Amino acid sequence: MSNPETDPDATLAFARHDHAHCACDTLARAEAEALRRGARLTPVRKRALEILLEAHRAMGAYEVLDRLAADGFGNQPPVAYRALEFLVDNGLAHRVRRLNAFAACMHPGEDHAPVFLICRVCDAVAEAPGAAVRVALDQAAADLGFAVERANIEALGLCPACAGADQNATA
Amino acid sequence: MSNPETDPDATLAFARHDHAHCACDTLARAEAEALRRGARLTPVRKRALEILLEAHRAMGAYEVLDRLAADGFGNQPPVAYRALEFLVDNGLAHRVRRLNAFAACMHPGEDHAPVFLICRVCDAVAEAPGAAVRVALDQAAADLGFAVERANIEALGLCPACAGADQNATA
DNA sequence: CTATGTATGTAATATCGTAACAGGTCAAGA
DNA sequence: TCTTGACCTGTTACGATATTACATACATAG
User: Which domains are seen in chain B, by residue range?
Assistant: First the structure.
């Protein structure tokens, strides 16, 4: 079984790619987006985002906190929660509630409705485009007179790799 | 029998209705569904479901636990978590992660994809029909080769009542 | 009856999250 | 310059949520 702690390739997207490049690129876009919004991407906040981008997977708040503390920032929970809350509020990160975790947004600035796909075998998390899902959700809500402001759409299931492994094992 | 996907009145989410009647009716359907699945709806489990149905809202595990303990069952967390997990696994209840809470399923046995609409003002929670949302989600996942087994779709926003109050206050 | 699997009870603890307050930084305006 | 106010960071302390591990009880098939 692959594990996001040990097998980075099985993480955020279900495909191999250049982490260093996509992390660096995404950070640049996040900084631009923060500037555009007039949001202050202070050192702790920026470092928290970098941590999420470097890890390239969903991380718990305390895990982020440990890294922040190691970098000389505060070592108490509010330090991490505040930085993460800022990132989420400004569309630079997402909260994955099923995992009590946070993940850097891969598309900061783009108006997107992320859908999180969580593999129940290897715990990999992918951020999938969910525009169509969001449209359907808004419609379902509108039918009841409800106005959606924020949505969490999370799916548990099998990622391609684990589905393949499962078939092979069963066969 | 009404179908939650097509009959909006069956999901009187934000509307007034007869709690006692709908709770009793839903409990009967839940028992039938448990029987059909060969799931053992033991006393603790049944009582936990009743508690959720009577409250008719999302409840925290510890809140359910208090009531179970008051009824003579165990008073330690696993008692509540196990009963609630059973209910969720068997489609008799849902977990609302945004609220760290559980709610009785209003349509046990019917193959449905619940969408939770959570009012950020009054905290009311409605279980809306989400078949269309689920279809869109399955498609988005399939595009990445991901097979969805379970989904949590939760929206935060304004319920009709609070949206109205807000408009009045602003006007 | 007895072995087996399942359900329940309990203790202890792990994990996650927040309230409240203190001090620091920075920019706008008296 | 000095103050004021808004915002950010750090820390203490605590509350809320959830799980592990183990012991006991209970059902049911053989």
Answer: 8-170 (1.10.10.10)
